[in-house]
Design brief:
48% of the residues lie in helices and 10% in strands. It has 15 helices and 8 strands.
Length: 402
């Protein structure tokens, strides 16, 4: 086990009707002028936004709306939010929605607190980020875990790069989590969320570090819980208990606890980010479409680790490590497919009426691999450090129709 530091300061208010406490929480954390950040019209149509705003009014808190966050949040839109928040003199940013709204709110908070820098400069590390505004969350989707994470991911349209920023300043002050608010999300968002929850743990689990038993057990049991309750929710997403488990697993999967003492892998996230940036595909779908190819490509770097995953998570009984590892990979891919998630690149669905991505050309795959590795100037992954050729090989494996 490696040395680690764990910091999870977010206050969680979990359960039915907890959104009614939003105004009290905002006041508690010093908010008096709030910019509310949200996505499309679902929070408006459901009446959630008004209920939240009514709690602010009851506390004498002034607010302004900033809606229209894109599912793969855009840096330019967040930059507009910075300008809105500064003009409004906001002292707290409140996200009402899922990971995209939360990541945008985090970015706006950084920009307001550091007006001398653009978000692009902040994301590129050109300034030392030492301060930010407080962020609160009313969660409507179990997926990204951004409500407790130290991460925020934006797509920079100017460069075409989707990139994360990791800092403890990203951790929200509070998160309100009512599983009932997830009942009406589209089925595709639900299943993309299930994949994302699993991947935040899988990307930490596959580490070369040994002797990490407690963290391993937490990760393995979380994965089993997501798999079990994901099946239930897929059939009935108004099952309160199943949606509760998924929502809480979402937070735990990305607050750091499932990877303590190990190294952060996140290779599959890097593969997926380039696909999302290029084709605007859903984040969870980009992960399910590439995980199987990645796992098959790197499995021999540590087959005993994949075998442990297969036995502990999927109850595989194969005694040979390689056979067990292969079985565990196959069961994972089969599970994704059972949720109607893509398990190869050609099946990735683009937004609107653009249809499926289809089989990509070698030229496109090379460009994607080049972007993952910054022109082959860096290697990714700790389990098996990979260059551009390795990433290209994984994309090629994923490019075959299932």
């Amino acid at each position: 086990m490696k040395n680690f530091r764990q910091y999870t300061p977010t206050e969680i208010l979990f359960g039915k009707d907890t959104e009614d406490l939003t105004g009290e929480e905002v006041r508690k954390w010093g908010g008096s002028r709030v910019l509310i950040v949200f996505g499309g019209g679902s929070v408006v149509r459901s009446g959630l936004l008004k209920r939240v705003e009514d709690t602010l009014v009851a506390e004498g808190i002034v607010y302004e709306e900033f809606g229209g966050v894109h599912p793969n949040p855009l840096m330019s839109f967040a930059q507009k939010g910075v300008e809105e928040a500064i003009s409004f003199d906001a002292d707290l940013i409140l996200a009402v929605g899922g990971g995209s709204a939360i990541d945008t709110a985090k970015a706006i908070a950084h920009g307001v607190a550091n007006p001398e820098a653009t978000l692009e400069e902040i994301w590129d590390g050109k300034i030392a980020l030492k301060k930010s505004l407080p962020v609160g969350v009313v969660l409507t989707l179990a997926a990204a875990g951004s409500e407790m994470s130290n991460s925020s991911v934006l797509t920079n349209e100017r460069t075409g790069k989707k990139k994360g920023l990791g800092t403890d300043l990203n951790r929200p002050r509070f998160a309100i989590m009512n599983p009932e608010l997830t009942y009406t999300i589209p089925k595709y968002q639900l299943t993309c969320g299930i994949v994302d929850i699993m991947m935040h743990t899988l990307d930490r689990y596959f580490t070369p570090v040994e002797g990490n038993q407690m963290t391993d057990r937490i990760a393995e049991n979380l994965l089993q819980n997501v798999i079990e309750n994901g099946r239930i929710a897929f059939k009935d997403q108004t099952d309160y208990d199943a949606m509760s488990e998924l929502m809480w697993c979402s937070s735990l999967s990305h607050n750091g606890i499932t990877g303590l003492g190990g190294t952060r892998e996140f290779a599959v996230h890097k593969l997926g980010h380039e696909l999302s940036a290029a084709y605007d595909v859903a984040h969870g779908a980009s992960l399910s479409a590439t995980w199987g190819a990645w796992a098959k490509y790197v499995m021999m770097a540590k087959p005993e680790r994949f075998a442990q995953y297969a036995r502990k998570v999927w109850n595989v009984e194969e005694t040979d490590d390689i056979d067990a590892a292969i079985a565990g990979i196959e069961k994972t891919v089969e599970y994704f497919a059972s949720l109607d998630m893509p398990v190869c690149l050609p099946d990735l669905e683009q937004p609107g009426d653009k249809g499926k991505v289809g089989v990509l050309s070698e030229e496109v795959l090379y460009e994607l691999a080049d972007r993952v590795t910054a022109g082959d100037t860096m290697k990714i992954s700790t389990l098996q450090p990979m260059n551009r050729e390795d990433i290209l090989n994984i994309y090629q494996l994923a490019n075959k129709e299932a």
